[in-house]
Amino acid sequence: MKTLIAPIPSTFFFSLFLLSIFTSNLPSAAADVVTDRDGDALMNGGTYHILPLFGVRDGGVELAATGNETCPLTVVQSRTSKIFRGLPVIISSPYRIAYINEALILNLAFASPPSCAPTPPKWTVVKDLPEGLAVKLPGYSSTVSGWFKIEKSSLEYLYKVVFCARSGGTCGEVGISVDDEGMSRLVLTEEEDDGIIVEFMKASSVGV
């Protein structure tokens, strides 16, 4: 008598695929917790200002309409003044943990975007643009699938924001490209160590 073996559902293999993606990007036990400018650990789901430092001008990050955009979809560095903190950003991970570790898969989303912006207002990376790989909100068909993460910079207590594409596993640091109108757009850099160095400030903090 033949022994019949039931076929394994395709959903099982898909679940294994998703599990392999997330487990391969879990921080190691030695990964350090990311801290803000007060020395406190970044909370998973907390709201912070992302402040670029050293060699770049102006203030925190915000949104602007560039090219043919009728709604501000482009993530830029504020031109208002050096003390402007930009729009607050929610920094969260799909993992059920309390704090943000270095190299952890992250979602970055503006906490108070304009009413015309897509919901949720998560940061994405868009390809095939004149400025290269640009950091924007959803709304473009040429979005690159992937995730953001925070890595330690060469300077103590300061960090870099990195984007890793799901296809090919390549990662690039988030840097700044100044266009002809003087707009400082956030883009992925082609060279290692060309990204901006940032610090994080609680959105509830006062002062600069």
UniProtKB/TrEMBL annotation:
Transmembrane segments: none annotated. One of its GO terms (molecular function) is endopeptidase inhibitor activity. The keyword Disulfide bond applies. PROSITE patterns: SOYBEAN_KUNITZ (PS00283). Pfam families: Kunitz_legume. InterPro entries: Kunitz_inhibitor_STI-like_sf, Prot_inh_Kunz-lg. Residues 1-31 form the signal peptide. Coiled coil: none annotated. Keywords: Disulfide bond, Signal. It comes from the Eukaryota. Belongs to the protease inhibitor I3 (leguminous Kunitz-type inhibitor) family. This is Trypsin inhibitor A-like. It comes from Vigna radiata var. radiata. The gene is LOC106755102.
